[in-house]
UniProtKB/TrEMBL annotation:
GO molecular function term, any single one: NADP binding
Cofactors named for this entry: FAD
Organism phylogeny: Bacteria, Bacillati, Actinomycetota, Actinomycetes, Pseudonocardiales
Protein's recorded name: Cation diffusion facilitator CzcD-associated flavoprotein CzcO
Domain of life: Bacteria
Similarity remark: Belongs to the FAD-binding monooxygenase family.
Pfam families from the UniProt entry: FMO-like, NAD_binding_8
Keywords of the record: FAD, Flavoprotein, Monooxygenase, NADP, Oxidoreductase
Amino acid sequence: MTITTTSRTRSADFDVLIIGAGISGIGAACHLKASRPGTSFAVLEGRDSIGGTWSLFQYPGIRSDSDMPTFGFGFKPWPHRKSIADGHLILDYLRQAVAENGVTENIRLGHRVLSADFSSAEGRWTVTAQRSGSGETVTLTARFLFLGTGYYDYESGFTPEFPGAADFEGRVVHPQHWPPDLDYRDRRVVVIGSGATAVTLIPSMAAEARHVTMLQRSPSYVLSIPAEDAIARVLNKVLGRRRAHQMVRRKNIAVSRAMFKASRRAPKLMRRLLIASVRRQLPAHFDVDTHFTPRYKPWDQRLCMVPDGDLFKAISTGKASVVTDRIDRFTRAGIRLDSGQELAADVVVTATGLTMSPFGEIRFRVDGGEVNLPETTFYKAMMLSGVPNLAVALGYTNISWTLKVDLVCEHFCRLLEHMDSHGYDVVEPVLDDPGMERVPAMDLSAGYVRRGIGKFPRAGTRGPWTVEHAYEKDVARLREGPVEDSALKFTRKPAHRSEEKR
């Protein structure tokens, strides 16, 4: 499927502008198409391809770190046997969703949004975007904005400053900017990091490299899960894929939520179970206490999932190894550690994390005043206090991202329906409890979160202002709960503001 940006003759005014054509923006487009067929919308994507993460990242072995029956959309069953899926399969799935739901012509590639200004008098957003290639700016207007921009910077990943890096005679690459010409066959590779990207890269690269070393400052929890779901395979065969989809989805949600809650309620027990699982998959002499026993509690950071224990298999065969130490400096031939050991390397991969970026660094203004995002508060984890006619899709940190996106999209469509049926033009969350404590919207202790979460809107600590990353609670308030809320201010445009609802 090919999406082009030429021969556009439609009006530049829409009911909804969706920013981002990754999994969140595509989900929003499909929900609007199905639930609100009369709603005009466009999807603005800054890059020249859809797919977000799944078209941006090209490093070896890229795959989902959640099961696909829940990471995929609720309205589209996952069609493949692999539950933990390779990136190219996920990208194909997203392309199919776009084509099957008839939203191809709604997507405008190469439109990087720079700013968005809301006018209360007009009840509309004015969006300025820059077109790739030509550099020209275009202006579009819309009643609503829906942000499907994710939470990290697409332009740059995070790499610490390593002393002596300029002395290294090999090649240093970051997974977010994987060079297509990188040849690591029969080379010595050091992967710096212990997170989801590192545990994905290592077994994939080990198949061709001379040796791959995972160099970590401290360990992460690593959980082996089946690449294929045996129960899903049986249900798909007996019931058919569409009927089985919801059953498999509910099962996987229940298992994931049970594991997370158990980690919170009995962290010592879960810690023992997770580490015992690792110990069973590695040789008897392997130092699990040093290399796979984290200092933090389970789910203080995301668990790293490895399908069929592929990381442990690479270590067991001797194709990969783990070193837990700190970097002193790079040398001409590799990396010298604080312990004095030197790791020889031809290629160093800095799987050192993401750079968080709020809403694509778009500059927001309301009636001429700048919106300072950290001063705003999430409402129902999908809107922002003091910012009218704006919805945000930020997924979960402790279960599949897209489960939250589906719920936000459902509620967003219900909100539009409510406003249309009552003749409202504008809705704005109003935080009328200035004494309420506000907290970060993500409570993970991962380095990328600590570095970047201060740039984002914050969460409240009660009522609709909480951000709890709890699927069952969001089902209650987004899918089953009412649209009407005392914290929402609904208004009509000034021309007929005789009726106002608070």
